[in-house]
Structures are given as structure tokens and as C-alpha cells.
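Lab channel / #folding
Pinned by the channel admin:
"Please post every new chain as: sequence first, then the C-alpha cells as a reply. Keep commentary short and put observations after the output so the thread stays searchable."

First post following the new format, from NK:
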Amino acid sequence: MTSGGRRKSIAFFIVLGVCLSAGALALNIGWVIVNWRQAGMLILGVLAFPLIITGVVLNTIFLVREIRRNEQHGAFINAVTHELKTPVASIRLYLQTLQSRDIEPSRRQEFYQIMVEDTDRLLGTIEQVLHAGRVGARLRLGRPTPVDFSAIVRECMALARTRHHLPDDALTYCESLAGGSTPRVLGNEDELKAVVSNLVDNAIKYSGSQVHVAVALEQPEAAHATLRVRDQGVGISASELKRIFKRFYRIPGAVASRVKGTGLGLFIVRSVIARHGGTVFAESEGPGRGSTFTVQLPLLPPRRPHRGRRAGESG
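Reply from TO:
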């Protein structure tokens, strides 16, 4: 079903709900006028009328939500199919070329590099789907352990710089930690890496041709760390700031539609951060004015220095 057809279906159910509510209201008023002398039936009608109207409204809301959910599922299937099919088709093409022609060594190495990048893209899509499945099922990945969050951020930034072939000034990073301490988070290292990677990759992809992404890790207080990922890209309208964290949701518009994705990245971010006891939110001054994503996580208390035994102290 096309987007126009879906909008017509939603409009149809909204109009149907309004008509049913108006019809029920008219029937109730007419019934009261006709039977005003029967006090018992009048009281029963007054009590039953709100229940009928509530049922009609809830039914309409449910139908509209189901249509929107089906629309999101359809968009997700199309996006995942594209994200899986494109790198596979590219790898197949290069393999057929290598098989059918005698390629120069330098050119062959270039083909190998392109195929490696396509497999990375393929693995990234698969990992996002698997992460979303684990998050949706509320599965816990083993016992939480102390994790160096600063090391995770630096590692994800190095991978993003390599993956997107960015110069040093396109992706900047700064730390402002209390007393040079190591910010340790009690949680799952792989999930936290998925959070940082999704935020950094999104900032890069939505920056357009001129990438200027600034990542900052701060520790305003001993008990919390704050990660900010700021870009100067397409920006986000005020009405979309809360909706972007929903599963399968992608911002509508010509600019955003050119960026490929599954609509799962920010859903994974929000779910993982909530599981780790933190919060995440987005800020933007509007379309075309960039955006900032902020993650706040609780930290473990700093390690106390180990005190050795005093001289002459027995074991």
C-alpha cells in the first residue's frame, strides 16, 4: 500500500469513529427525549452512554495505531531488504569480475577492499536487527561488569573514522573528567558499544557532504557521566524529537529519506541506556541547523587505592 493509500485508510477510520460517536450521541439524546418519564431507563442510559462512546473511541484509536504500525513494519522490511541486498549484489558483481577477467594486482586489491566494506555494512545491518530483537525480548546478556566508558567511546570513534574515511578534523573528541578518573559503568560492553556507534554513525550520515561531528564526554559529578554527540547536519523539527526513538521510526522528508537505514538505531540506543539506568534525549534548533544527542549514565564509585600491609605486620 502506498503512503497516500495509508493516509486515506487512517482518515477513513477517524471519520468513521467520529460518525459513530455522533450517531450514538444523537440516538442517546433522542432516546432520552422520548423516554424522559421513565427515570430508571434514563439513569441506565446515562450510565451506558459513556461506556459506548469510550468503546468506540478506543476501537478507533486501536485501528489507527495498527495501520501506522503496519506502515512502519512495511518500511522496515523495505529498508532491511535494501540494506541486505545492496552489499550482497555488490560483492557478487566484484567476485564475478575477478572470476571472469585477469585483473591487475592493484585493481584486485581495490576490489577486495570494496568487498570488505560491503561485508562490514552487511554485518552492521544484521547486528542492528539482532540487537533490536534482544532489546525487544528484554533479554539480559550475562552478568553486568564494570566497563570503561571512555575507552568504549574512543574505540567507536576510531572505527567510525576508519569506516567512513574521515579526516581528523571531521570527527573531534574531547574529555572533561573529574580528576582524570576513569568513568566506569556497570553494564554490558557490547551493548554500550552499540549505543555509541549508532549515535556517531547517525551524526555522520545525517551531516551530508560536509561532516563536522563533535563528541564530548564529561563528568559533571562523580556519580554520572554525560556523552554528547553534536552534528551540523539536517536537524530535527520539534515535533519529531520524541518520536525518533520509537522502533522502526524514520524522519520523513526528502533529505532524511536519502539516508539509508533500518529505523532501529535510536530505538536500540534508548532501550540500552534505559537498561543501564540512564537517560537519552535529542535537541535541535530545527531543520538544517544540526542536532545534539545527549546520554547520561550512572557511574560506579571510583576505585579506592589499595593499601599494603605495614612493615612488621604479620599475615
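NK: The radius of gyration is 27 Å.
TO: also worth noting, The first helix runs from residue 3 to 34.
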